[in-house]
Design goal:
Layout (H helix, E strand, L loop, with lengths): L7 E5 L4 H15 L6 E11 L3 E12 L4 E8 L7 E5 L2 E6 L4 E5 L20 H4 E11 L2 E10 L8 E7 L5 E7 L5 E13 L2 E11 L6 E10 L10 H6 L3
Antiparallel strand pairs: 1-8, 2-3, 2-14, 3-4, 4-5, 5-6, 6-7, 8-9, 9-10, 10-11, 11-12, 12-13, 13-14
């Protein structure tokens, strides 16, 4: 288990940009589930200075080999049955009241939280970004590499990012997301991890809005499973059926 304590020192890095790019690939490989599926229960606490605090319980399903995922809301009651279904490069939002699916984007916020839909998809950072510079430093008690990365396509949520990666284990502890103009939009923290099969999954994630003070979302992951899931789960018919 990792415990995150802030406090950063920085020095020049001893690794090359090519080695940094390989590190991104390692991060993808450790977090993506190849040859198996993934499911878990997510508890989300969203704090908003205007709207107050909302708790959301979400059932998460992933089939990374097929680039599919399903997020089903169980709580609050007024949102029960809403779902986000990714199939064939299309992300659909299901509203049980209207019984209709509508297109949405991976770049959009998830359920009005500080998490984005893309935070729950399989990771493709090595394909979507190139490393532009690397520093060495510490984050709390951990020695880290600090990677500055820049998007190589327009499909990503943020054009530039900064990533704090542990030297031991290559786990992401923190990211900063920037706009095209260089403005810090969001900071994300990953203080704890659990091993799931041969992979590592962050069991706690904290997404902080850097534009609105006091706005953040904390996600806790439990009931992790890497058992194979029926293909029928990743269908519109399944989403409609579980709401009947």
């Amino acid at each position: 288990m990792l415990i995150l304590v802030l406090g950063i020192t920085v020095s020049l890095s001893a690794i090359t940009l090519d080695e940094g790019q390989k590190m991104l690939k390692t991060i993808d490989e450790m977090s993506n589930f190849s040859g198996t599926d993934f499911s878990a229960l997510m508890s989300m606490i969203t704090e908003d200075p205007e709207d107050g605090i909302e708790k959301t319980i979400v059932q998460q399903f992933r089939s990374d080999d097929d680039d599919k995922f399903l997020m089903l809301l169980n709580e609050p009651v007024v949102k029960k049955g809403q779902g986000y279904l990714m199939i064939d490069d299309n992300l659909w939002f299901y509203d049980p009241e209207s019984r209709k699916f509508s297109h949405t984007s991976l770049n959009d916020q998830f359920n009005g939280s500080e998490a984005n839909n893309s935070d729950f998809n399989s990771s493709s950072t090595a394909d979507d970004y190139k490393v532009t510079s690397i520093e060495e430093g510490t984050l709390g008690k951990y020695e880290v590499y600090i990677l500055n990365i820049e998007a190589v396509n327009n499909e990503v949520t943020y054009p530039t990012q900064k990533i704090w990666v542990t030297k031991a284990g290559t786990l992401t502890l923190k990211t900063e997301d920037y706009s095209a103009g260089g403005r810090l939009m969001r900071s994300s923290y990953y203080p704890t991890y659990a091993k799931a099969g041969t992979n590592y999954i962050a069991t706690k994630m904290i997404f902080v809005d850097e534009l609105i003070k006091g706005k953040k979302t904390t996600i806790t992951i439990s009931d992790i499973s890497t058992k194979d899931l029926p293909d029928s789960i990743f269908t519109k018919a399944y989403v409609e059926r579980v709401n009947n």
